[in-house]
Design goal:
about 350 residues; alpha/beta; Rossmann fold; six-stranded parallel sheet; binds NADP nicotinamide-adenine-dinucleotide phosphate; binds 2-aminobenzene-1,4-dicarboxylic acid
Length: about 350
Amino acid sequence: MKKKSYNVAVAGATGVVGKEMLRVLDERKFPVGEIRLLASERSAGERLAFRGKEEVVRLLEKETFEGMDIGLFSPGGKVSAKYAPVAAKAGCVVVDNTSHFRMDPDVPLVVPEVNAGAIAGYKKKNIISNPNCSTIQMVVALKPLHDNFKIKRVVVSTYQSVSGAGREAMDELSEQVRNIFNMKDPPVEVLPHQIAFNCLPQVDSFLEDGYTREEAKMANETKKIFNDDSIKVTATTVRVPVFVGHSESINVETEKGFNLDEVREVLKNAPGIEVVDNPGDKSYPTALDCAERDEVFVGRIRRDDTVENGLNLWVVSDNLRKGAALNAVQIAEILIKEYL
Ligand code: NAP
Ligand code: 12T
């Protein structure tokens, strides 16, 4: 017998991703029985509203997952590493937003529009990973192109908002702007340099080879999600002084030839995509327009005639929604429909 409702634990509920999870669960009428909001001792005891009711935030501990069916996790990589397996063992299927389990071969890495079928593999560990925000919006846009024209190589540069780095980074941008207008020194504590009126070619930390972890995630996760190691991806990830919404300039080379009308058609018909591309009308996606929206927006569609079968795209999405909370809740919806 199917359950009528499911008990949902939100780990990291007070964070920017966790709060978005609560909004998305409510908006999409997810059949929530009990909701359990979890955070650190810093916020335990605080109240957050869910479906018009005040809920008390509890301390995330080993025992807090008893009786829970689904865990939506965004408490940071270290906390997920420790507690996702605890929740999973207690029978709570975890959808984890951190990078910790993404490349684990026994954990599916899922974007429903691309590889919903992979969810079946959750049974090995009772954990499913949500990909990185920058990867999610890119693979949604690439999926119809890969299906129709087979992608050989991708060169991507990102323009990532500060909300990707959490609540403290958003506060830091606000405070820097305020201080600068008041002739005071801007605080630099969360992001690696001043972000106000600046662009930083660093998201996450550096690896030995000169790439950042964010850049490596985009390449590795894309291969895993498409289940295709032949797709070459090279990325430059950049933090920009935007609060919400990641933008990406994506250059694609395909195996098969295409004409631009076909490209527009397959993008328009693909799930989760909205094409906004009318240059005559100054019409293209921007982060401000895409914030609080669910779709992945694609514009500036044009041929790159410096290579055979080259294409340029501008892809924008709300990193807290499709890039995090919405994708996680979509996974949970498939879980309850097909498996729980
Ligand atoms: P945030 O705004 O800084 O929030 C962090 C949340 O984690 C808060 O609820 C915080 O609770 C909680 N937390 C921190 N340490 C904890 C602990 N020891 N025990 C329990 N809870 C703890 O950050 P965020 O932007 O929401 O992101 C959090 C995580 O999600 C990060 O790991 C990040 O990698 C991941 N993320 C993924 C994507 C994606 O690409 N899919 C996008 C953004 C973020 P307190 O209020 O108690 O501090
Ligand atoms: N460092 O989930 O800082 O892997 O924007 C997401 C966002 C890691 C992740 C960021 C990050 C992740 C950021």
